[in-house]
Design brief:
single chain; 154 residues; mainly alpha
Length: 154
């Protein structure tokens, strides 16, 4: 069961993560907060530093279809559950939530300050910095919806 979650920008995402860290949460999906922070950090870093060549190569033939059909769903908050990610982006079990959040927070700061070119997403292609920022926030929301704050439990 995913929760409804609307966040505007990285500041709201970081605030939500801090709240989950401070108040606790229940997992409604497969990943902990630390795993989510690691996964999102790796995707943002790849956006700034480059994706593995094989990701770009494999995503290229499907890119127009994925950009047309899947990207609008992700951006509107209707991201489907159960999509498989690249094995290199799957975080291991047992990560420390606080340490992974700190690394994620630092990565977000680097992305916000980043003025160089961004690498095209393997599945969705080129976007502006602003568009990628919105995409990364939507990606965060998709994963954070699977963490239920302790205060929201009935």
């Amino acid at each position: 069961m995913r929760r409804d979650l609307e966040l505007e920008g990285f500041d709201s995402v970081l605030g939500e993560c801090r709240s989950l860290l401070g108040n606790g949460y229940q997992r409604a999906g497969n990943w902990s907060l630390g795993q989510i922070c690691r996964h999102i950090r790796l995707t943002i870093e790849a956006n700034m530093n480059g994706y593995p060549w094989w990701m770009t190569l494999l995503g290229f033939p499907l890119r127009p279809i994925l950009k047309l059909l899947l990207l609008p769903r992700i951006m509107s908050g209707r991201s489907p559950a159960g999509l498989q990610t690249a094995p290199s982006l799957v975080p291991p079990d047992g990560l420390d939530d606080d340490q992974e959040f700190q690394a994620f927070e630092s990565c977000v700061g680097s992305f916000v300050r980043h003025t160089g070119p961004l690498y095209p997403h393997p599945a969705f292609g080129k976007m502006s910095h602003e568009e990628f920022g919105k995409f990364h926030v939507a990606h965060c929301i998709h994963h954070l919806r699977f963490l239920i704050p302790k205060s929201d439990e009935g």
